[in-house]
Amino acid sequence: MFNICSRNSITMRNGSSSHLISYLKLAATTSYTLIPQISNRRFLSVKSSLLIGLPSRRAFSIVFRRANSFQRQQKTISSNCHNCWRCHCGGYNSYSTSAKGSQAEGDDSTGFCINTSEFPPEKIRNFSIIAHIDHGKSTLADRLLELTGTISKSADNKQILDKLQVERERGITVKAQTASMVYQAKDGERYLLNLIDTPGHVDFSYEVSRSLSACDGVVLIVDANQGVQAQTVANFYLAFSKNLVIIPVLNKIDLKHARPDVVTEQLHGLFEIPSESVLRISAKMGIGIDDVLEAVVSRIPHPTGNRDLVTRALIFDSWYDRYKGVALLVAVVDGHLRLSQNITIAQSGKSYETKEIGVLHPDPTPLRTLYAGQVGYLYCNMRSIKEASVGGTIHPTNATVEILAGFKKAKPMVYAGVYPMDQSEHPMLRSALEKLLLNDSSVESKVESSAALGHGWRLGFLGVLHMDVFNQRLEQEYGAQVVLTAPNVPVKAKIFGAKNIKAYGGEIVTVNNPANLPDPVMIEEMSEPFVIGTIITPDVFLGEIMSLCMDRRGVQRDSRNIDSERIMMTFKLPLNEIVVDFYDKLKSITSGYASFDYEELGYEPSNLTIMDILLNGDLIPEMTSIVHVTKAKERGKAICARLKETIPRHQFQIAIQAAVGSRIIAREDIKALRKDVAAKLYGGDRTRRDKLLKRQSEGKKRMKMIGRIEMPRETFIKVLER
Ligand SMILES: Nc1nc2c(ncn2[C@@H]2O[C@H](COP(=O)(O)OP(=O)(O)OP(=O)(O)O)[C@@H](O)[C@H]2O)c(=O)[nH]1
């Protein structure tokens, strides 16, 4: 009997059940028994659509067989196949075939029935793929998975590891993904390769830096056409600073305009990478992929852990499963992690029993043990997100171990308020946020409330794209409709006067919400965050880029040619000036040829001021912002004009004002709705008409003094939304 170890789950993720149907048909017409790799629930949820077109009741038995066999797998793992994660039989059968069903029984030639205990640290390689955005990381990951037989070859394999809907829609990776695969190297040995595909955009660099902690080397991809870009530089130095082995790879050599020699020269000039160590591949066409695998095996060192020591595992990611609770992604450093083992998280001191343990292959694939050097996931009935600490050390309960170095906490660059559309949805939004925050540990959250928007949260993100993606994930994955307020960067205020310092709990107050800024009379000095921005561009755009940066209060630090046409410039820029639309502007003036990346420089004193918005003299705290003195007028005018467009006309005139202290710096008026009170007059004395008009204008004056400005919630949202 054969098991058909298909890549069904991948087919499902792509939104098509056609492959699965064909396997089922195959199973129905032959004597095969299908034991697919996807979870019970997903399988059963698509059951009805799978049954369409299947010939007999046999199809039913296949479906139910799957459900039963999965449960059996949890309970009985036979001695035949202790750690069989490849064929997923859980010890139920000794041998299996590939998805093509072409293997004969007992044929182990492509590595079926893998026992993870076979792979001591020397036979393991943990590596990440890093690159500038769109240089081909996920495409290379697809080819590596195909070549190692982890997934079956198919034209449908496009960015398999980009699992989130937002990633598929935007075509970018936002979440690092892990996949384990087995590779038969040219030296005749079989290696367990744990690959982590990382995001390229600077806003997700925390994902990259966390992933690198579980790796011993990286594959640095550079597009052979575009050459070195800003994030290539940032990623290179990140890997370099962590002492990781770097395998430089030029991708897209199939492109007509590829310039592999020029790009190799760039790598040599910028990073002193020897030209002969640079691999040339085309991930799309599948050229040179085995060279990458060979380089991974031969150049990247194996993990240094020891199986005989007390277990220590580093938690480097987590996510939430609706049915199983919190999943932890771990890198086992020493010893081993077993099913039904009592473990403790050193940082929290809390203990659990492991309920499921496995590897991502690339879908969660249960097994019994994870050994030193291996990377996998575990469920341990953890329900609360507060218990899961990314960067934490797992050890056996009752053992004492040295805690592993964790991660620096991510420093949010941009803050925004998140409120439910309707306050009745507050509990639902809270639960959605908790789950998503578990999945994205770089987001900071704090409860806050606003008179206009009710109870909500102030969230800190690594950038505006990060904020957008988070918002989209809240909507798509949790159905939460939220109001996102305009993003702002944090500022620091230095307070003076012992009494004030005591009241604010310190001399320096970090303000994430402009409405919470201490009274300006108490502030001695304000500082804002600065960054070092790196721009790589063809030199013809030099002039426009210089004026854009200067307009954004930038100061040039450095400039150097990276080849005969391209230049790399660095600027010191205030984060506030680049956070929203700088990159878009840069792309538009350079027709998309420039790339931009930045790194934090810290806070520096700056001439900042607080700008209030008043409606008929009343302060609207939600609209308060902190701006540079030189930009206040421009910003004030823009906000007043936007408010004028969105506030509906009232019976009385509305003055919209932007003020810095007591000085009004911008003003717009919304004219009153005019009722023709003299309409019913037919002739008569002129004084009768004047009297009516005078009474009307007095009424309006009174209304203006006591009348509330009706700002429908939607109006508020429109102005606050970016
Ligand atoms: N011609 C050609 N195109 C390629 C090659 N590799 C990738 N691409 C294309 O480049 C685009 C980006 O590829 P991805 O694999 O998504 O790039 P990425 O680096 O993972 O992107 P992010 O995750 O967003 O940073 C896709 O349209 C791919 O089809 C290649 O070798 N040749």
Number of helices: 20
**Euclidean distance between termini CA atoms:** 60 Å
Strand segment tally: 31
Structural class: alpha+beta
- Runs in which pLDDT lies below 50 for 5 or more consecutive residues are 1-19, 24-113
User: What would you call the quaternary organization?
Assistant: single chain
Radius of gyration (Å): 30 Å
Average pLDDT confidence is 78
Strand content: 25-35%
What shape does the CA trace take? globular
> Can you give the helix content as a percent range?
25-40%
Ligands bound to this protein structure:
guanosine-5'-triphosphate
Biggest sheet: strands, sense, closure? 8 strands, antiparallel
- In which order are the strands of the major sheet placed? 11-10-16-7-8-15-12-13
Explain what this protein looks like in three dimensions:
With 722 residues, this protein is α+β, with helices and mostly antiparallel strands. Helix content is 29%, strand content 27%. The strands form six sheets. The chain has an eight-stranded antiparallel beta sheet. A hairpin with a 5-residue loop joins strand 10 and strand 11 (351-353). The radius of gyration is 30 Å and the shape is globular. It starts with 7 loop residues before the first helix and ends with a helix. Mean pLDDT is 78; it is low at 1-19 and 24-113. The structure holds guanosine-5'-triphosphate. Its EC number is 3.6.5.n1. InterPro entries: EF-4 (IPR006297), EFG_III/V (IPR035647), EFG_V-like (IPR000640), G_TR_CS (IPR031157), LepA_C_sf (IPR038363), LepA_CTD (IPR013842), LepA_IV (IPR035654), P-loop_NTPase (IPR027417). It is a peripheral membrane protein.
